[in-house]
Specification:
It catalyses: D-ribose + ATP = D-ribose 5-phosphate + ADP + H(+). Helix content is 30%, strand content 26%. By secondary structure, the protein is of the alpha/beta class. The chain has one domain: Ribokinase (UDP-N-acetylmuramoyl-L-alanine:D-glutamate ligase), CATH 3.40.1190. A hairpin with a 5-residue loop joins strand 13 and strand 14. The longest helix is centred in the last third of the chain and has 19 residues. It starts with 5 loop residues before the first strand and ends in a 15-residue tail after the last helix.
Length: 345
């Protein structure tokens, strides 16, 4: 029996304070909200939980090893009583989470607008996440038992660490399947050159526009405005640029209610499609939907790599469709980690 593939998620861990409200108050306005609850969160830990839950083929069986690497504040009661147990119950190892002295665990204040179909607004205090800045230390944790099959990263730890990890893991001598979701996008952006050799890039419409904002070669045909829907022809043009300029094998753009677009460079061919969104009866909360998608897609890639060396012959349509379905289940539930479905569901 072959060993289970390993996913290591390097990223943020937060405590989420979620306030649900009939509408968002205006400047200077005090409004009675519906409720306030405390949840485990952080894009890194959300995606780790999504990977862990996706790996459950039954309530007691998990076919992918998932490990979290990051930092929290030492002696944080919310980490000990809420965040750590949630990760572990979702099948995620927390051995790589450092408990740092002299800093608080990262927090996110999330306002869920019930009058706007569950749309959310988020305020983040980085806390310990901002201290994940020792590249050598992070690399040591990420490669402690050899290279993992898949590394998943986001944008809620220092930019210098993320760019350093991209260089290290995408180098020819240490080629690893990295799935990078630059969310939230760093204020300074992500240079296209930093993505050289990346296996998978996952962005939403906003992040896609931000990524290309400073690309001079594309200025003759500008990227669509935020109030416009990105067309397939525009997505084809942008992903062709990424395949050619940075050698990225797979680019996925999540488009909310419009669905998910993917472009997969396989040999001399480009496998491209726009998969429609899964229709749901009622959207309760969109928090965590993007992280659910990333986690499920990463798990599908890890399963593929356990059978076949390299991304060639990956059934990308099936992987994207399953991740899309998991995200659709997520938005029908409240919360971030709690709303992520298990694979056997």
């Amino acid at each position: 029996m072959s060993p289970r593939p390993v996913i290591r998620v390097i990223g943020s861990l937060n405590i989420d304070f979620v306030t649900r409200t009939p509408r968002v108050p205006g400047p200077g306005e005090t409004l009675s909200a519906t409720s306030m609850t405390v949840h485990p969160g952080g894009k890194g830990s959300n995606q780790a939980v999504a990977c862990g839950k996706a790996a459950f083929t039954s309530p007691t069986s998990q076919d992918v090893v998932v490990e979290m690497i990051g930092a929290v504040g030492a002696n944080d009661p919310y980490y000990a009583s809420l965040l750590k147990p949630t990760l572990e119950k979702s099948g995620v190892s927390t051995a790589g989470v450092e408990e740092m002295e002299g800093v608080q665990t990262g927090t996110a204040t999330i306002i869920v607008d019930e009058g706007a179909n569950g749309e959310n607004r988020i305020l983040v205090v980085p806390g310990a996440n901002a201290r994940v800045d020792d590249l050598g230390k992070v690399m040591e944790a990420a490669t402690k038992d050899g290279l993992p099959d898949v590394v998943v990263m986001q944008g809620e730890i220092p930019r210098s660490t993320v760019l350093g990890l991209l260089r290290a893991f995408n180098s020819p001598e240490r080629k690893t399947c990295v799935i990078f979701n630059p969310a939230p996008m760093f204020p300074e952006g992500v240079p296209i050159d930093a993505l050289q050799g990346l296996a998978v890039l996952v962005v939403n419409e906003t992040e896609c526009r931000q990524l290309f904002a400073a690309v001079e070669e594309l200025n003759t045909v500008p990227v669509s405005r935020p109030d416009e829907i990105m067309t397939e022809s525009e997505l084809d043009r942008l992903t062709t640029y990424l395949h050619g300029k940075a050698g990225i094998r797979i680019v996925v753009v999540t488009l909310g209610s419009q669905g998910v677009y993917y472009s997969f460079e396989t040999g001399d061919l480009l496998d491209r499609a726009l998969i429609p969104a899964v229709k749901v009866e009622r959207v309760v909360d969109t928090t965590g939907a993007g992280d659910t998608f990333v986690g499920y897609f990463a798990t599908a890639v890890a399963r593929h790599l356990a059978r076949v060396k390299g991304l060639d012959n990956l059934n990308i349509r099936e992987a994207v469709s399953r991740a899309n379905e998991a995200a659709a289940k997520c938005v029908q539930r409240s919360g971030a980690m709690e709303s992520i479905p298990f694979g056997y569901e």
